[in-house]
Design goal:
Number of strands: 14
Domain Transketolase-like pyrimidine-binding: 3-175
Protein name: Alpha-ketoacid dehydrogenase subunit beta
CATH architecture of the largest domain: 3-Layer(aba) Sandwich
Number of helices: 13
Oligomer: single chain
Largest sheet: 7 strands, mixed
Structural class: alpha/beta
CATH topology of the largest domain: Rossmann fold
CATH superfamily of the largest domain: Thiamin diphosphate (ThDP)-binding fold, Pyr/PP domains
InterPro entries: THDP-binding (IPR029061), Transketo_C/PFOR_II (IPR009014), Transketolase-like_Pyr-bd (IPR005475), Transketolase_C (IPR033248)
Cofactor: thiamine diphosphate
Radius of gyration: 19 Å
CATH class of the largest domain: Alpha Beta
Number of domains: 2
Strand order of the largest sheet: 3-2-4-5-7-6-12
GO molecular function: oxidoreductase activity
Helix content: 25-40%
Shape: globular
Order of helices and strands: EHEHEHEHHEHEHEHEEEHEEHEHEHH
């Protein structure tokens, strides 16, 4: 029986609630309603009093979680959309991120952000916030791109003593399926080679991993072997795996769905140029969403974000350098 990306997130939360009485879930309409995307469907009946509906205040939600974590709980916060987490930004970056460093008391909270765009969602329900939160020390930023990672990385995040921003991509909720969940997975902070190659490296994460693989499959018809690196974890970031891939290929394209200015793709290029400039045979490139608010119209949205076609076009330019 296959499992979707969304079902894997639900199963991970079920398992966390089952095995650890300190875990609870807090968010808007997550109880009987099951959440905006049904990621907590039926969990309230399975675990009475531990899947709790929150007021419409992301600030209050995160503040409550921080207080509970300080007192020994391990809260999971569900934001209805990643965009709304900006309302709780002060609590996340000024309280949760600094808690351990100020007091030597850990703050083990997980904040689930339904991230990225879907057709027709527009500027308030489509943003990718990982670059913003990665700027702040004290936060772990995870961006699972597979069903397996959605499950295992969420469980690992709940076990961490650090506050975790868990960026789950809405477009993958139902589009991605797996036949089974393996027992073992890579640790947090370790990237994976999603597709081996030798002519160019694409570093991507979240939904852009799949767009990059599709682009690589297309270029293979012309004899090009493109290596795709799935970051999995934005912070900590696995610089060693990135550099090893660039050493094999000599060319680098970084792909992200977030806005371009100061993003994850820029950080990857900065690290490669600083530590692996001698490995490059061409200037490293990046491809992000357009530097504009995200449009509502499905056709405009498709033109706004990177796609397999636009990634393939950038790779062809890079390969000709």
């Amino acid at each position: 029986m296959s499992l979707t990306y969304l079902e894997a997130i639900r199963e991970a939360q079920y398992e966390a609630l089952r095995r650890d009485p300190r875990v609870f879930i807090y968010g808007q309409d997550i109880g009987k309603f099951g959440g905006a995307f049904k990621a907590t469907k039926h969990l309230d009946s399975e675990f009475p009093g531990r899947v709790i509906d929150a007021p419409i205040s992301e600030d209050a939600m995160v503040g409550t979680a921080i207080g509970a974590a300080i007192e020994g709980s391990r809260p999971i916060i569900e934001m209805q959309f990643a965009d709304f987490s900006s309302v709780g930004f002060n609590q996340i970056v000024n309280q949760a991120a600094t808690q351990f460093w100020r007091t030597n008391v850990p703050c083990p909270i997980v904040i689930r952000l339904p991230s990225g765009g879907t057709a027709g969602s527009g500027p308030f329900h489509s943003q990718s916030m990982e670059s913003i939160y990665a700027h702040y020390p004290g936060l772990i930023i995870l961006t699972p791109a597979t069903v397996e990672d959605a499950y295992h990385m969420l469980l690992a995040a709940i076990d961490l003593d650090d506050p975790v921003i868990f960026c789950e991509h809405k477009f993958l909720y139902y589009h991605l399926k797996a036949d089974s969940l393996p027992d073992a997975t890579l640790p947090i902070g370790k990237a994976r080679i999603a597709r081996p190659g030798r002519h160019a490296t694409v570093v991507a994460y979240s939904a852009m991993v799949h767009e990059s693989i599709r682009a690589a499959d297309e270029l293979q018809q012309d004899g090009y072997q493109i290596e795709v690196v799935d970051l999995r974890s934005v912070k900590p970031i696995d610089t060693d795996t990135i550099l090893a891939s660039v050493a094999r290929t000599g060319r680098l394209l970084c792909v992200g769905e977030s806005f371009p200015w100061g993003g994850v793709t820029a950080e990857v290029i900065a690290r490669v140029v600083a530590d692996g400039f001698h490995l490059l045979d061409a200037p490293p490139q990046r491809l992000n969403a357009k530097d504009t608010p995200i449009p509502y119209h499905p056709n405009l949205w498709k033109a706004h974000r990177p796609t397999a076609a636009s990634i393939g076009a950038e790779l062809r330019k890079l390969l000709k350098f």
